[in-house]
């Protein structure tokens, strides 16, 4: 196997190179770091291949990755003259294969002229009725992205630092990596962690940013104020101030596992849970409502299914309009 003859598509279909891109095997990482350093003339091809691998690989389970790479290999006719014509379409094929598995929308940012190429991978869950997205990052960290949320991953992620940008809500399970800090920016609030599990909530309809620490330790900074959290503590950034307290750990674990419970919920409690769970602003239209005591359990159910059940039992009229939810009697 002469690596000097490899094109970008050859690299991306090489199992060892894929493991290097996903940082899943130390020997492969060491080999390719050394090989690329010794062969700078191949950097353009390896960079292109790494871009394609990360587009295809992020957000899939290991089994799904193996299956999708198998499909992609089948699409490329090795040795055929059509192989070279096919290469320019490969990024689009990779994206199409990925979107058949998980409904993640990515946006490729074009760098400005006269700047270093700093492209960003963006994962988006636009609709309130969409399922959550699980994103596997190159360092082995996992992000669960809630509905109505956007996660931006710079292309230099997992090099000297690991920096993400969030709009909405996400649960982070951070892989330990020495001398490579993990940070999340949400609005004007920054969270730094190293080998920990935490959640950040920063929706546009809420002026505050909330950080909940499940395990490990994080440092939260907003304006000039900084706080370090211990497990089961939260901090809420409001107008540059940090307000801390204790959160319901069981409820957060239910959120993590996709289990939504209503126990004798009043109308106001029902609205708060829907807003918390689905990341959607909920309005209760003023009026005289009959007392509500709603009970229900939903596991990984989309919003329309939950609303249909609530409406059937309570006779409430519930509608989604322009990305917000309205409850009427």
TrEMBL record:
Keywords: Membrane, Transmembrane, Transmembrane helix. The chain crosses the membrane at residues 89-108. The keyword Phosphoprotein does not apply. It comes from the Bacteria. Residues 130-219 form the FecR protein domain. Coiled coil: none annotated. Residues 259-326 form the Protein FecR C-terminal domain. Gene3D superfamilies: 2.60.120.1440, 3.55.50.30. The keyword Membrane applies. InterPro entries: FecR, FecR_C, Ferrdict_sens_TM. Pfam families: FecR, FecR_C. This is FecR domain-containing protein.
């Amino acid at each position: 196997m002469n690596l000097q003859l490899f094109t970008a598509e050859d690299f991306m279909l090489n199992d060892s190179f894929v493991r290097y891109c996903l940082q899943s095997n130390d020997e492969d990482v060491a080999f390719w770091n050394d090989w690329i350093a010794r062969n700078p003339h191949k950097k353009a091809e390896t960079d292109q291949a790494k871009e394609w691998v990360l587009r295809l690989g992020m957000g899939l389970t290991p089994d799904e990755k193996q299956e999708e790479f198998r499909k992609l290999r089948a699409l490329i006719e090795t040795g055929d003259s059509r192989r070279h014509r096919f290469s320019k379409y490969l990024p689009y094929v990779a994206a199409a294969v990925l979107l058949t598995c998980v409904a993640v929308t990515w946006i490729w940012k074009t760098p400005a002229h006269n700047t270093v190429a700093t492209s960003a991978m963006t994962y988006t869950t636009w609709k309130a009725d969409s399922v959550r997205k699980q994103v596997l990052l190159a360092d082995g960290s996992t992000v669960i992205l809630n509905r109505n949320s956007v996660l931006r991953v710079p292309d230099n992620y997992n090099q000297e630092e690991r920096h993400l940008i969030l709009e909405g809500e996400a649960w982070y399970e951070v892989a330990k990596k020495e001398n490579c800090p993990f940070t999340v920016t949400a609005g004007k609030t920054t969270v730094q962690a190293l080998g920990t599990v935490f959640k950040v909530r920063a929706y546009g309809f809420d002026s505050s940013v909330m950080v909940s620490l499940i395990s490990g330790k994080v440092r939260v900074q907003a304006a000039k104020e900084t706080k370090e959290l211990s497990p089961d503590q939260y901090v809420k950034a409001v107008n540059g101030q940090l307000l801390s307290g204790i959160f319901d750990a069981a409820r957060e674990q239910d959120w993590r596992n996709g289990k939504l419970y209503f126990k004798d919920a009043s109308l106001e409690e029902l609205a708060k849970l829907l807003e918390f769970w689905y990341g959607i602003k909920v309005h209760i239209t003023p009026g005289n409502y009959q007392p509500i005591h709603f009970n229900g359990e939903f596991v990984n159910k989309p919003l329309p299914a939950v609303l249909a059940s609530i409406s059937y039992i309570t006779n409430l009229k519930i509608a989604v309009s322009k990305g917000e939810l309205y409850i009427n009697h």
